[in-house]
Amino acid sequence: MATVRRELRFLLNDEEVLLDDAGPGDSLLDFLRLDRGLRGTKEGCAEGDCGACTVLVGRLRGGEVRYEAVNSCIRLLPSLDGCHVVTVEHLSGTDDGLHPVQQAMVDRHGSQCGFCTPGIVMALYALWLEQPRPTEAAIRKALQGNLCRCTGYAPILRAAACAGDYGLPEEDGLVKNRKAVGERLAALADGKRVEMAGGRAVLPANADDLADVLASEPAATVVAGATDVGVWINKDLRDIAPAVFIGHLGGLGRIEVGGEAIEIGATASYSDAEAALTEAFPGLADYWSRIGGWQIRNMGTVGGNIANGSPIADLPPVLIALGAELVLRRGAERRSMPLEDYFIAYGHQDLGAGEFVEAVRVPKPGGNAQLGFYKVSKRRDEDISSVCAGFMLRVREGRIEEARLAFGGMAATPKRAEAGEAALVGQEWGESVFVAAGQALDRDFTPISDWRASSEYRALVARNLLTRFYLDRSPAAAS
Amino acid sequence: MTGPATREHMHRAYRHDSAAKHVTGRAAYADDMAEPADMLHACLGLSAAAHAGVTEIDLTEVCRAPGVVGVLTAADIPGDNDISPVGAGDDPVFAEDVVSFYGQPMFAVVAETRAEARRAARLARVAYEPRRAVIRTEDALETVSEPLTLARGDVEAALDAAPRRLQGTLRVGGQDHFYLESHIAFALPGEDDEVRVVSSTQHPSEVQHVVAHVLGAPSSAVTVDVRRMGGAFGGKESQSNLFAAVAALAARKFGRAVKVRPDRDDDMTATGKRHDFRVDYDVGFDDEGRILAVDSVLTARCGFSVDLSGAVSDRALFHADNAYFFPAVRLRSRPMRTNTVSNTAFRGFGSPQGVMAAERIIEEVAYGAGRSPLDVRKANFYGGPGRDMTPYHQPVEDNILPRLVGEIEERADYASRRQAVLEFNARGGVLRRGIALTPVKFGVSFTATWMNQAGALVHVYRDGSIHLNHGGTEMGQGLFIKVASVVADCFQVDLDYVRITATSTGKVPNTSATAASTGSDLNGMAAFEAAETIKRRLVAFAAGHWNVEPGQVVFEAGRVRIGNQDMAFAELVEAAYMARVQLSATGFYRTPEIHWDRAAGRGRPFYYFAYSAGVTEVEVDTLTGEYRVLRVDILHDAGRSLNPAIDLGQVEGGFIQGMGWVTTEELWWDDEGRLRTHAPSTYKIPLASDCPPVFNVHLADWSQNAKPTIGRSKAIGEPPLLLCASVVEALSMAVASTAGYRRCPRLDTPATPERLLLAIERLKREGAE
């Protein structure tokens, strides 16, 4: 067994924090506001949807500190071991004046009630660190996770566009200290297992140690990005102990791009995996940018999106269509399965006690594959889908040889459309075939009605997405 | 950072006074203020039935939970168990024998920490005896208040005689305020029966009176303070009463400071929203699209109690004409009682629903008469001989809409863009576009005439610094900076001299809610009066002391010229102090001219009208119903704007909030009466990416209020929201294009992608019939 440390260690702004009493469900936001009196960071929703609680978390990636905007309301304290937390109180410009992002917001009248403003400032700060002169599209994407009810966003967009005129990252404290902070974080990373609160929160030392921990605590809650778990805690008041935190396990978050397949480790965040996947599947880029908001993409993991078995998760339909395989591990044993087989029924997955999702392997589809990824939701960005879909067809000489149609939001699990696929395979490429396949979906699915969409709408949209897929490949017909 | 003093501080684009504090996180909201060491926290226990007798509330486990200090139920209320803003007696703090909506507070648990209180609240065991629950308006049988009828002319005869006539129904959804700062209040017990309450409220005086009423104490025992709110939008007008009352009750019972901050879900479940409406209309018109008669019934889902529903449904009627003259008209309200949360004030206060009804009628007439909607609008605008009378018998005297509409047509290049949209759609692709221009006429004043009053308190200290206080509250709308600029203008000193202070019932009593867009009209004038009073005393003193004519005492750029003398403002103030001149004054303002006879449906409820016009263009994917708002152009009438930067923000923000209301914001109750969209994960307000990529907003810089308001400005808070009618009509046009524009799509709101797609399918079916 790995040696154990019983103290959490991280940096908060300029200070080193040592905690020996953090519970598994303690949020960063409450710690900031209640324990540290840092009340610039606000609680708007406690479920990671409004961004009022946005802070930056820096972690060591390949020897360098990378700062990301995250929602502190659902960021759990134990997951911060070895990280640098930066709050709005840390921002300043030259001579302790306003930071460039702050000054731009003030000059462009970017705040009205001001309650969302610290969170907006932090999201824009994260953007400015990466792109001090961002495009309009980049600004809108960076603000997907921040709600403002007063301004209608127009002045905030103007402020973001001109923040670079007030100063550049080279002069920023965080940038100037990046190396020193990196050294401090490296010094904190002692490779030990961390156990807090009498074993109620455990941070394994590495993937093998994780396997050991789960073998002895098979009922433990596995916490990666906490974008689901944090909501269980805040909304359902669920006690997640014993909890095993895995987000820090770099080895489990590796992304390996091979000739045949891309393998994504379970703890890779959506943001981590974005480059590799959207490079291999360019059609996925737009879809990817519609998963949660920026903060959620920085926190939530590919593995978690699969492991929790939600019927409305964004990734499973896409990955099923691509023919992905899931790799599970228990102790030293590993097994893999086609992703669609993992989802057995609502709330029931093919995951044994003590077993965990280790990786997902996405094969590269080859030249004759036609790919389509669709998400339909009430609001375009940062919404849960009414229907989402991944399609992969292989077409040879005008005939459809293979079809994989996978849908989310249409059944109790992410699911392939067997009747729809059958209606396509062997047919000549043409609109009527896709219309017929769309009609065949009625035999595959009996979707439910809820607050996101009615059964009627879901069925209609699923059908029409096949037409959309056809039209996207037949520009003449679409116009 | 306020810049140099100039002749004019009013009408300048000053930044929000708290802007620097907002961006640094140093602006303190109620939950950020220092807490007394012994502060307790209360959490509400909410009902799990929409309508039921309560046979037992067992709080044993609640009381045993860790950290719990005690519980509060109706039995702990020394005064009246009622927080109704209109004293109706139908709005209990805690339900007793009967619960009337899912999520109604039944008790509160008080614990050492908020987390402990939240955990404990869920341990209650309640036995319910279900009763018939009315969730949908259609099933409602009784009204919550007396309906209103506005009528002029013989509507039935005019309908019968009209060359064309049609009937239809419009359903307009409700809206959650989604202020980013949820409700919050904390109470500090004082001596004897005194209590101080810090509340996030638009209506500190009402909170004061309600807390006193609930405690069984005189109002003088209660002081309510509010520095700022993290958004309100009407949601913190009457709805703050609950949280303040619970905090005060708990503070009284346990003798310690108590805070109540509901989580987002409880806030959205237990507090009221914008009323959803059903409008049944009957319209008669001629072949040119000129309206001859309108007979509309506006039915509102009010929820379980009256709250402000009477006034909200009245205001819906007052705006059901929008900008159009109806030669014969009858408008009737039906404020219906349902077993849902009691709906309340929300920016526009019924007027948006009324305007949606008017604009639907215009759209119907346009399709019916085969004319363009803009032509129909122009044919029906108020104006011309005998065409100036509203359904409530107040003439429209200051109509600038023809000029506004003409200018926005030009700025937005409306005619050629509409032609381009028609051509785009004629190509028959799956993407369709729509464009619409809609106007707004908004009546300014509380329709409850007595509420149109305000007070202010101004002190000038010996160093020349000025303490400003008034009854208005700051919720982000920039009221404080506007009023401060009025005072700075009066004394001709830098804004830095004017200290903006928290609203407090101890300083200015018996105030009205900061609502109905009247904040700067009322409080600006009251502060002006207070400052002018002090200034008059200073002038009189200076004239006497230096022996000059009063006209020779001139305030200018932080200094005062007195005949040949010239001195700093502070110098004059110190001299006046030494001469025992009173340097503190109250100011009071009541809106002149207005009166309203509700029983007769006649009067002059509004001091003046504010106007606006907007053009929206959209693109719809007819395969999924998804859409984008491509471009919006707005020309808005703020009179002579008190602060063009602040006002521009109100127009932009108000428009987007309205756009959210009519597009993605959907309140969804299940059959049990549970609201299932009670957090941002399920309730979708606009995001930055929903802001139109082209968004041109201008104030009509030539406009001046015809009435002598403060600086000849106009109210700004609500009118821009009503421009969202242009979004609905643009979406509707795109839908109509799929069926050759033969039928009015009758798009209900919120026009979600689902509603659009189903409307397209409906038009297909109707076309096939």
Query: Which structural category fits the helices and strands of chain B?
Result: alpha+beta
Q: What's the gyration radius of chain A in Å?
A: 23 Å
Total helical elements of chain A = 19
**How far apart are the first and last residues' alpha carbons of chain B, in Å?**
68 Å
Derived structural class of chain A: alpha+beta
Give the spatial strand order of the biggest sheet of chain B: 3-5-1-12-9-10-11-20
DSSP E strands of chain B, number: 29
Number of helices of chain B: 18
Percent range for β-strand residues of chain A: 15-25%
The quaternary structure here is heterodimer
What's the quick description here?
Helices cover 34% and strands 22% of the residues of chain A. With 479 residues, chain A is of the alpha+beta class.
Describe the fold and architecture.
The complex is a heterodimer of chains A (479) and B (769). Chain A is of the alpha+beta class. Helices cover 34% and strands 22% of the residues of chain A. Chain A has a five-stranded mixed β-sheet with strand order 1-7-8-10-9, covered by helices on one side. A five-stranded mixed β-sheet of chain A has the order 3-2-6-4-5. Chain A is globular and about 70 Å long. The model of chain A has no long low-confidence stretch (mean pLDDT 95). With 769 residues, chain B is α+β, with helices and mostly antiparallel strands. Chain B is built from 18 helices and 29 strands. An eight-stranded mixed β-sheet of chain B has the order 3-5-1-12-9-10-11-20, with helices on both faces. In chain B, α5 (204-215) links the parallel β10 and β11. In chain B, α13 packs parallel to α14 (519-546). Mean pLDDT of chain B is 97; it is low at 1-5. Chains A and B meet through α2, α3, α4, α5 and α9 of A and α1, α3, α16 and α18 of B.
